[in-house]
Each structure stands twice: as C-alpha cells, then as structure tokens.
What we know:
Elements: H1 13-19, E1 24-32, E2 35-42, E3 57-71, E4 74-86, E5 94-98, E6 110-111
Parallel strand pairs: 2-4
Antiparallel strand pairs: 1-2, 3-4, 4-5, 5-6
Amino acid sequence: MFHTTCTHPGYCTLADAIADLPGFHVTRVDRSPAGLRLNVETDPGIVFCPACGVQAVADGRQQRLLHDIGVFGVPVLLVWSRRTWRCRQHSCPQVSWGEETQLAPPLPSTSRPEPSPGL
C-alpha cells in the first residue's frame, strides 16, 4: 500500500490541493466508517479592529461546520477552525469578532454595553 506523509512543518500542500479551497489550508483529516472529517483554517495574519483600527488580540477559535459534502463517493464533513479576535482598546464599542468567509454566513459580533449615565 502507498502512503504519503506531508513533511512540510506548516500546512500540507497535498491535502490543500485535493481540498481546492482558495484561502484555506487543511489542518487535519480523520477517516471513520461514517466518512471523512476535513478540518481547515485560513492563513494567519495581522488583524485590526473593524471599529477603531487598533491591532487585535487573538481570542481563540470556534469550530464551525461549513458543509456536509461528498467527495469520491465518501461523505465528508468540512469543519472550519474560525479565528476570533478581541479589541484591546477598552473605549472601543467592538469587543470581539471572528473571521468571515463566503462559505459560511457571518456570526453576530459582540459589542460592549453602553455605559450607564454618571459612570
């Protein structure tokens, strides 16, 4: 049996080529009797707050099921590890937000509550 292992320390170009999702990289592939689970993420980069422009702080990831598809006659779950950020500026109305893609509808962002008068 022929086995191929990705030896690049980052993303696997072989898996990326098969997935053919521009802007995304395959980070993990799991096979079970039910089919395949393909985990993907986007390229890392510097992100700025959409409200005030301050450089954002990484705030974790959310797993989002993008599609339940079939490839080569096998059921495939495509799961996106969506990066989330928060604004480091306490006076900014934007608290946190996450990546968006055309493959999934956006999730609502979080805003800071309006301060009470006199505070």
